[in-house]
Amino acid sequence: MENLSTLIHLDYTLMIVGIGAALLGSVSGALGTYAVLRRQSLLGDAISHAALPGIAIAFLLTGSKTPLILVLGAAIAGWLGTLLIMSIVRLTRIKYDSALAIVLSTFFGFGLVLHTLIQRTGNANQAGLDTFLFGQAATILARDVLTIGILGGIALIVMLIFWKELKLLVFDEGFAASIGLPIRALDILLTSLLVIAIVLGLQAVGAVLMSAMLVAPAVAARQWTNRLRLMVFLAACFGALAGVSGTIISSTMSRIPTGPTIVLCATVVVGLSIAFAPNRGLVWNRIRQQRHRHGLKTAADGLLKQSQQRSE
Amino acid sequence: MHEHLDIQLIAIVTAVACALPGVFLVLRRMTLMSDAISHAILPGIVLAFFLTESLSSPLLILAAAGTGVLTVLFVELLQRTKLVKEDAAIGLTFPALFSIGVILISRFAGNVHLDMDAVLLGELAYAPLNRLQAFGSDLGPVSLYVMGTILVLNLIFILVFYKELKLVTFDASLAAALGFTPTLIHYGLMTLVSVTTVGAFDAVGSILVVALIAGPPATAYLMTDKLSRMLVLSAIIGSVNAVCGYWLASLFDVSIAGAIATMTLFIFGLVFLVVPNRGLIAIARRHARQKWEFAQTMLAIHLFNHEGLPEAAAESAIADLHEHLSWDPVFTTQVVKYALNNRYVSREEAQLVLTEQGRAIAQQALVQ
Amino acid sequence: MEAAEPKAIEVTDLTVAYQDKPVLWDIDLDVPPGVLLSIVGPNGAGKTTLIKAILGLVRPAAGNVLIYNKPYEVQRRIVGYVPQRGSVDWDFPTNVLDVVMMGRYGALGWVRRPGKSERELAMQALEKVGMEAYTTRQISQLSGGQQQRVFLARALVQDATVYLMDEPFQGVDATTERAIVTLLQELRANGKTVVVVHHDLQTVTDYFDWVMLLNIRRIASGPVNETFTPDNLRETYGGRLAFMKTDK
Lengths: 312, 368, 248
Known about the structure:
The complex is a heterotrimer. Helix content of chain A is 85%, strand content 0%. Chain A contains twelve helices and no strands. The longest helix of chain A is centred in the middle third of the chain and has 42 residues. Chain A starts with a helix and ends with a helix. The longest helix of chain B is centred in the middle third of the chain and has 40 residues. Chain B is elongated, with a radius of gyration of 29 Å. By secondary structure, chain C is α/β, with parallel strands linked by helices. Chain C is built from eleven helices and nine strands. The two termini of chain C are 33 Å apart. Chains in contact: A-B, A-C, B-C. At the A-B interface, α2, α4, α5, α9 and α11 of A face α2, α5, α6, α10 and α12 of B.
């Protein structure tokens, strides 16, 4: 009986972790779609790294380790980083990639300085930084799931409310402006949603791998459909799938960290999609090319036969 | 004091070695490739480490550099399928490879001396501890020799292929037409970036190496137009960041690599603000100055365009000018005052009339 | 024509500068209702900027734009816009019908989704441009001409009175070009005003009844037969117009 109860308990923990990972995966998958479509796939990488000083400052100011406060700090720093990237691109001749690289690495470095400062005062342990870097999906609690569910749910609902406006913004900004949509405000909204997805996802996979959670589900989903609606839905599903399967694999095998496993699961989904998705996939394309070649050949043969018959 | 000097020397050599290839990455808009490479080489390092059990063996550097080049190749292959755009291809590739590296480490290297913090963050403070001994005497820290060699390699590559690099950077198609095979130069550069990244790993880790590669060249790019000057400036800025970062770190007893990155941001921000011509302050001042000049030219052209036409009287009435031009009335009054002072226009009753000088200004502006 | 008829578009003393560089100098342009006007000028003459300034997409340094006597912000609903085809990513995951329905977003307002009536309007517009067979086609699988027709259909469902089109003939096949011209003339016949940024000087007299010659400043504007003269063209293009002389 005791064995059974530990088993049930273990399953309960695993279930919570699984639900948490699934929620995180679906939120970042759905919102990552927009980042990929706007060719800002690596903005997520910058935001997630830039979040570190925000977390450190939030801790230094409040002395609290409440997830919500740290998430808030992360979000503000991520936001400032994005703003700085955009200003550098707008005001100087430095291009987007360099601006992004500078903000990503130097914000992170500044965060590291603050972190060592906190460490020295003996307020925090090393685990804090490791969590930030690699996430800690395995320790997600029911309380965290609630936070993720509420914040992520709000982000997704806002995305649905402004569905057609955001779609038009991403597809054709000029036209969107011409019919009177407030481009700036929508841009800020979309970036904010992305920031929410990222700071939530930090808990699961950490800063280093966060960009994969935004990019991989969306890229996989893009191969299966030509409709935005379906793409967002599929990306959410793939994100959830990667989250759950990564959690299960890492919990059943010893010494396999959760975050990287989730990322590898997402990468496998991308690989399969790129290879086998109908219409766009590589295998499909190969078959179509061969059929096309075959078709050309039969047509040519037919013509040849005709002309031979005629000449006879 | 000896230790202080060693660390600063290592920091400077590393910073310069990173900044030189970084110049070409910044100019070719490929900075993010260095971010990808620095993460993606992890599995290469881990595998080579299993084989050699040493973090500074040349084999390790070669293996990692190979993985770096493979990463570049893989990103390009993904792009070539036309199913994935470049940014997404990078965003897919490096986390996957990095994940493999992390899993390899935690699964098989649990107790071996290779921990994730060292890989990601590096620790410059430990760098001088591993010393090169020969003939019973201490020749200095190993990493100084490693980074020194890499720096010399980078210098040689850039000096030998300077002309080719320049051409490929600014006009890849012309370079191809002249038979310089941009691909070869491209992969040569990427190999260098990979080697440099691995070398810098020990000191600053895989995230902050990006600051060394992108920071100084981007800062220098704000200061000069000449490639050669940009290379020299990048090296100087990189060294300044390294030394200042080091002293900042010792002062507050914090992470040296982190402090160097912080200095990189600070110096970049400073230059961004104050550099002549391209800095924020210069731009703002120029705008303020040109605002009035530009407005007077606009006024002159406005009058010129309507000169001698039936509507001229209405268009040049001083009282209505602000309505025609949709300017703020106060602003309009000020512009008219300046234009009168400069004798671009003269007042004839309630109307403004162009002077010869004003007409010349309008014509000149329109011809440009 | 009535004497007091309002202008469809009235641009007065419009100057636009990007940072310190002037792109348009003191432009005046009156477009009467019901004309088909082409804006012609060399590269970098500010043609696209003029369209964008009329649409309020760039902020002018001076001057004013009125659509039927009122500012653009008020008149948005009666203005249709066809951006340059190259300005969007055609690999975006959407299909033809969906893009055309975007033309109704302005009328729909916030939050409301396009429904059955929008779908019907979109279908009608697609029939008008001869694209009704492609409704569910992914937009990346269209030819350049077909993409341009989709953009035109999107503008048509805006059901506007004034249309602004940025290079609708850019990179389209001959059939599409004919179809677009027919469509433009139909629009004019229905009393709409159409402003088109145009590149091909040879077809100006055939396709349009008004023309504006632009090169940073307005060289001339008015009915084609009065305005499209060798002198004006020479002034617009400078010395770069040798081929026209042999033509005339």
